[in-house]
Amino acid sequence: MSETLASLFRSQAPERWERSISRFILFHSFILRVGRWTSEEDAALLESVAKYGKRWYEVARALPGRTDDQCAKRYKDAVDPSIRWCNFLSLLAC
Q1: Is residue 56 within 8 Å of 69, Cβ to Cβ?
Q2: Which pLDDT value is given to residue 58?
Q3: In this predicted structure, what is the pLDDT of residue 33?
Q4: Prediction pTM value
């Protein structure tokens, strides 16, 4: 069982590299950004999603330094306008 899991993880790392990071580096000549998103990035993300839909690779090309996975996660977790975000303290009022 542990051998199967180890081989699974070994096969996922190159796939992740090929699917997201290497593609990103090929088209962008700058350093990947990590950490907090700025309000300007959030605005650019919303604008790009309005333009390209949920084609995350295209969206990421409009956001220097962010990968398609980062853009998708940020949109789904923080800025999707279809999700009603509530203050934790007023959760019962939502």
Answers
A1: yes
A2: 93
A3: 76
A4: 0.60
Burial status of residue 68 (CB atoms within 10 A of its CB: 0-12, 13-18, 19 or more): buried
Question: Residue type at 4?
Answer: T
Low-confidence ranges of the chain (pLDDT < 70): 1-31, 85-94
- Spell out the alpha helix ranges (H) of the chain: 2-16, 22-27, 39-52, 56-61, 68-74
The pLDDT assigned to 64 comes to: 86
Instruction: Give the number of other Cβ atoms within 10 Å of residue 71's Cβ.
Output: 25
Give residues with Cβ within 8 angstroms of 21, minimum separation 6: 32, 67
Pick the CATH number of 2-81 from 1.10.10.60, 3.40.50.720, 2.30.40.10, 1.20.1640.10: 1.10.10.60
